[in-house]
Amino acid sequence: MDRLHWGHIRLLERAAAFGDQLIVGLSTDEFNAVKHKEAYHSYEHRKYILEAIRYVDKVIPETDWDQKIRDVQKYHADVFVMGDDWAGKFDFLKPYCKVIYLPRTKGISTTKIKTDLSEEEQEAIVKNENED
Predict the structure, then answer these.
(1) What are the residue numbers of the active site?
(2) What residues are paired with 26 via a beta bridge?
(3) Which three-class secondary structure string do you get for 20-68?
(4) Over the stretch 42-53, which tens digit does the pLDDT of each residue have?
(5) Environment class of 102 (CB within 10 Å of its CB; exposed 0-12, middle 13-18, buried 19+)
(6) C-alpha distances out from residue 1 to 5, 49, 95, 126, 130, Å
(7) What is the pTM of this model?
(8) In angstroms, rounded to a whole number, what is the distance separating the alpha carbons of residues 96 and 67?
(9) What is the spatial distance between Cα 2 and Cα 45, in angstroms, rounded to a whole number?
(10) DSSP state letter for 97
């Protein structure tokens, strides 16, 4: 959720429709480091952003790979929802809850945003060089 876009919001909205409470697991900065990922925003800022979204009822820290079963049990989750780019990766939760993989929103992705921004930055650099 570091580069939040309307596709993420739509996914959260659709996930929320499966129950009466939407709890979102959010990787901590330390867990991101273990995964060799670096977020632009700190965990606290990403959490703050997610908590401001009306479909999200609670944000919990994700600190390790193995906590999902514990979280499902702790929060009595009936349904686990994830984007379909993760299809099959969370099937190990099926003995504990229903697992649903939702299709991602077409036409938008974090990768597309990164690519578009990179192209815009490159164009701006070329433009600035030509003006000098």
Answers:
(1) 35, 37
(2) 61
(3) CCCEEEEECHHHHHHCCCCCCCCHHHHHHHHHCCCCCCEEEEECCCCHH
(4) 999 999 999 999
(5) middle
(6) 8, 9, 28, 31, 36
(7) 0.81
(8) 13
(9) 9
(10) S
